[in-house]
Amino acid sequence: MTEVASAPAVASTPSVIGRLLGDLAIDYREVPDHPALDPARKVQAVLLDDSVGILMVLFTQSHLLDLNRLADLIGRRMTALAPDRLQTLLDKQGLSLLPGLPALINSPCLYEEQLLQQSTLLISAGEPGQLLEITREDFKRLLKNASVGGFGEPLSAIKLDYAGDDGEAITRAVQAFTARRIQQRLEATIELPPLAESVRRIMRLRSDPEVTIDEITSVVETDPALAAQVMSWASSSYYASQSKIRSVEDAIVRVLGVDLVINLALSLSLGKSLSLPKDNPQSSTPYWQQSIYTAAVIEGLTRAMPREQRPEVGMTYLGGLLHNFGYLLLAYVFPPHFSLICRHLEVNPHVSHSLIEQHLLGISREQMGAWLMRFWGMPDELAIAVRFQHDPAYIGTDAAYPNLVCLALGLLRNHGIGHGASAPIPDALFERLGVTRDKAEAVVSKVLEAEVLLREMAAQFGQA
């Protein structure tokens, strides 16, 4: 069986692409896109922009486009073309995706030299799921007016560390971007925000099995923004309250429940410790929206697990809310370089953010987030959930927590929510959690049915 034999059939090549290749006398074969295809054969196309103009850049999906190397090569510091301008160009051609065909876009082209090591190449046909296979010789003909260079980094050369000391790794990364060359503990090397007293109070309540409604109400009401948030959530259509919510106690007792209020309070209070960065990757899922979607999916997945192996629902939900906390810390610790990370995320949609951060900084947001969770004395389950959320094979202590985050993120990514290309989710991950694929997809479908309401709640959360 060939590597594409089991893939579904695709529609015919868009007419504008067929005419262009026909005019150039280039033969091609239609191939359905499929995860089993070698990424080294797939041509990734991106349009970059600066004050001089637009540049098409082509590279293999087995590589990361390094904007620093590109700047050194061409003497221009370029960023991804704005999404609205790219959409206008694609609309003129009647296409959904940018094909790696320089003749289609009237702009200069630069391609990665690694592409010519392949005997055949796979180019997007301009629509999702459709690829066109052409020979290396025909690809060279397409690039007759293009320039060649070496600006990519093999993804295989970027190694994520799942076993090392995160504190030491973060210290090394910080020192690499500062003038300091002395060995210090991380908390002495960078200025971390202190854990707010409100968070400490909430954590004490969370660990108290006999906590009362009055105690929770008292903590919430001392923070006006938090009280307004709790009232707003309880009154939202998502929770379908049958009557008007008149007080924080009403919200807790009649709608949200103790666990959810404590988790919301803790997540919001921690989020306020580090403000949302002003810079973000273009077309990225907003921070709180990603958090709330993930938490909602995790809650559903947890309840779908067999009762005897089900972890604490409140803690798994909190793991979803805080899974991307390292993103805020990344912006806080590396402000001059956070923008560079954003620009690389824009031009490398096929690469996970963890690999991009590891390549640029030598550290990932997951390592930083997990370290800060431990530094602040958060529960171990949270730190583990944050640290190993992208490792589908993790079977260590409290594995259910990172496994649930990993599954939720994978499911959402396959529905176009979150960064990185969609990818098959291993059977073993479903089996360890005791959740079938059908049940998992049903959970995601239910969450996406409430997408409008969840976005409204995320917007309120971000304003608190």
Topology:
Layout: H1 15-23, E1 29-32, E2 43-49, E3 54-60, E4 63-65, H2 67-74, E5 79-80, H3 83-93, E6 109-112, E7 120-124, E8 130-135, H4 136-142, E9 147-149, E10 152-154, H5 166-176, H6 186-189, H7 197-206, H8 213-221, H9 224-235, H10 248-256, H11 258-273, H12 287-304, H13 313-322, H14 325-333, H15 335-347, H16 353-361, H17 365-375, H18 380-387, H19 400-413, H20 427-433, H21 437-449, H22 451-463
Parallel strand pairs: 3-6, 6-9
Antiparallel strand pairs: 1-8, 2-3, 2-5, 4-10, 7-8
Helix pairs in contact: 5-17, 7-11, 8-10, 9-10, 11-13, 12-13, 12-19, 12-21, 12-22, 13-18, 13-19, 14-15, 14-17, 17-18, 18-19, 19-20
Q: Please, could you describe this protein's structure?
A:
With 464 residues, the protein is α+β, with helices and mostly antiparallel strands. The protein folds into two domains: 15-157, YbaK protein (Alpha-Beta Complex), CATH 3.90.960.10; 166-193 and 274-463, Hypothetical protein af1432 (Orthogonal Bundle). Helices cover 50% and strands 9% of the residues. The protein contains 22 helices and ten strands. It has helices at 15-23, 67-74, 83-93, 136-142, 166-176, 186-189, 197-206, 213-221, 224-235, 248-256, 258-273, 287-304, 313-322, 325-333, 335-347, 353-361, 365-375, 380-387, 400-413, 427-433, 437-449, 451-463, and strands spanning 29-32, 43-49, 54-60, 63-65, 79-80, 109-112, 120-124, 130-135, 147-149, 152-154. The strands form three sheets. It has a five-stranded mixed β-sheet, with helices on one face. Strands 1-8-7 form a three-stranded antiparallel β-sheet. A two-stranded antiparallel ribbon has the order 4-10. Helix 11 runs parallel beside helix 13 (313-322). Residues 192-392 form the HDOD domain. InterPro entries: HDOD, RNase_Y/CdgJ, UCP036888_HDGYP-like, YbaK/aa-tRNA-synt-asso_dom_sf, YbaK/aa-tRNA-synth-assoc-dom. It holds the Pfam family HDOD. This is HD-like signal output (HDOD) domain, no enzymatic activity.
